[in-house]
Specification:
The protein is about 35% helix and about 15% strand. The chain is an alpha+beta fold. The chain has one domain: Class II aldolase/adducin N-terminal domain (L-fuculose-1-phosphate Aldolase), CATH 3.40.225.
Length: about 240
Amino acid sequence: MTTPRKPDPDMLDDLVAANRILVEQGVMQAYGHVSARDPRDPDRYWLSRSSPPAMVTHDHILEFDLDSRPVAPNPPKLYEERAIHGEIFRARPDVMCVIHNHCESLIPFCNTDVKLRPMVGNAWFLRDGPPVFDIRDIDDTGDMNVCTAAQGQGLARSLGRNAVCLMRGHGVVVVGATISEAVRRSISCDANARLQLQSMPLGPVKFLTQVEIDFRVNGGSRDSERGWDMWKKRALEAVRAGE
C-alpha cells in the first residue's frame, strides 16, 4: 500500500492560489478544477477534493495516482472528472499543471467552425487555433462530462502537443509546464476569446503572424511572472484571512 505523503509546500501554495485567481479573474465560477503533478514523483498529482474553486484551501488538496485514484483511504467527495487530469499527465510528461474550466467566452469556439486564434501577444500559444474534443467520438451516452479513463484518453489525444483543447458544449483544458503558466494561459484564452468575438463583426481580424508566434515559441518573452506574483499574493492573503 502506498503511504500518503505531505505535498510540496510551494506547490501547495501555488495550487490553492491558482483556484482563487481563476475565480477572481472571471475564468471560473462554481465549477472547474486545477491539478499539479508532484514535482518529486511524476506518477502522482495533487487536486482539491470536490469544492467550488473560490473555497479551496490547503486542507482540501489530495494526492492521486495516474489512474486518478486517491492515495489516502476514505477520501471525501471528489471531482467526478478526475480522469481529465490523470490521463493528460500520463500522456504528456512535459505537463506539470492541468486546468479544466467552463469559461463562457470559449463556448462559441467549441461549438462552431470558427477557430480561436491569437489576437494579442500573450495568447501566442493558441497558434493557428486549438483542437476541439467531441466526446461523441468516444461514446454517445449523452453525458458530456469526462469521467472514464477512455474519455480522458480521448481528450488527451485531442489535446496532442497543444497547450489548449476546447471541448464541444463543455469548456476547455489548458496545460502548462508550471502552475503559473497554465493559469496565465487560461486567463489569456478568456481575454482573447472576448476580444475576437468583439472584433469579428467589425471586419477581417488581424491575428498574430507566424513570425510573431515563432518569436514567442523561440523564447522571446517579457516579465511573464509579474501578473502571477500580484495575483498569488492577493489570493493567499484572502485564504489566510479566512482560515
